[in-house]
Structures are given as structure tokens and as C-alpha cells.
Design brief:
This protein is mainly α and 134 residues long. The chain is 68% helix and 0% strand. It has one domain (3-25, 35-127). It is built from 4 helices and no strands. Helix 2 packs parallel to helix 4 (107-127) and helix 3 packs antiparallel against helix 4. The longest helix has 26 residues, at 38-63.
Length: 134
């Protein structure tokens, strides 16, 4: 593998892991419009875990275009690793920000939708032979 590409991949994985750890450990409750409950934090950690699995699976799709194709029309059948990373990092930030500013009464609904969508993607990816790993 190209050494530069390996370094870029390592930096991207570290950024994503740092975001995941920050979410799993707890969101800064003082900045939320409504305080986050322990259940909110747990749902966010579950979604973050599924999102990371989907990210790793989508990177594999990008690395093996002869074996797989992406079904997400936002990034195309054979996206580059950079496009995958940009979409997932941007998506993580945007979805986390949305959940962060939602009123407490609506936050669980959004989180369950995100968990459901990410879970469905992961299950589909497993069904076509994609595992987990960066």
C-alpha cells in the first residue's frame, strides 16, 4: 500500500475514533439546548458504534471496486476513500450537532432513526460479505 495513503488513512481513523470516544464518554451537557440524559448518551454511543462499522465497511467497498459497489447515491457506486471519509466525518458532525440541539422530547426519536438507518446499512453490508475493520 502507498505509504502516504496509509498515513492519511491512519489520521482519518484516529479522528473518527476520537469523535467516537468523545461521544461514548459523554457529551458536554452544558452546551446542549436541553441537558442530555444518560439514555441520550447511551443511544449516541450505540449509533456511533454502528456508524463506525458502516464507515469501515464503506472504506472496504472503496478499496475493492471489483468486488463491491456502494448503494448510497450520495457518493456513487465506486467512491474514493477520501470521498467516503469526508462523507462519514461530515455526516457524524452534522448528525451529532442535530441531535445536540434538538429538544429533549425529540432527541430519542432522531437517535432511534439514526440507529435504525446505520444498523440496516451494517446488516446489508454483512449480508454481502463485508466484515469489520479498517
Amino acid at each position: 500500500m502507498n505509504e502516504h495513503l496509509h498515513q492519511v488513512r491512519t489520521v482519518i481513523v484516529c479522528i473518527v475514533i476520537a469523535c467516537a470516544v468523545g461521544a461514548a464518554v459523554g457529551v458536554n451537557k452544558t452546551l446542549a439546548f436541553d441537558e442530555w440524559s444518560d439514555a441520550d448518551i447511551t443511544r449516541h454511543a450505540v449509533w456511533t458504534s454502528l456508524y463506525l462499522v458502516d464507515f469501515s465497511q464503506t472504506l472496504k467497498i472503496a478499496r475493492e471496486p471489483e468486488n463491491y459497489h456502494e448503494r448510497n447515491p450520495l457518493i456513487g457506486d465506486h467512491p474514493s476513500e477520501g470521498k467516503v471519509a469526508a462523507m462519514f466525518i461530515g455526516g457524524y458532525i452534522a448528525q451529532t450537532a442535530l441531535v445536540h440541539v434538538l429538544p429533549a422530547a425529540y432527541r430519542p426519536w432522531a437517535q432511534y432513526v439514526f440507529i435504525g438507518v446505520s444498523g440496516a446499512c451494517v446488516i446489508n453490508n454483512f449480508s454481502v460479505g463485508l466484515g469489520i475493520g479498517f
